[in-house]
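Project standup — Tuesday

K.O.: blocked on the structure for the chain from last sprint. Re-posting the sequence here as requested.
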Amino acid sequence: GTAAKASPTSGDAERRTDPEDGQKLTLSELHAKYKGTYTEEDIQAYWDVECQLAAPAQSSSAASADAPQGGGDESSSAAATVIKPKSKNTRRF
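H.V.: unblocked you, prediction finished:
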């Protein structure tokens, strides 16, 4: 059959890359890593904004095929809008 690695409840199974050291972590692992150093709110904002989704090992060209709908360059530039965290002290971790 087709066994998908990510379960339907991918909230905790989702791995992202911590840009500070390149580690691929789940949100729970990130909380454990920075607990006592940053607030849960700051860690969540860091996860949402800074940490990039860890791509599966086999997909190197997936990023270029990200928007198969077509539609022009306007849609891709709009999707690249960066959301700034609310916290003032959001320099690098």
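K.O.: great, moving the ticket to review. The mean pLDDT is 71. The chain is about 30% helix and 5% strand.
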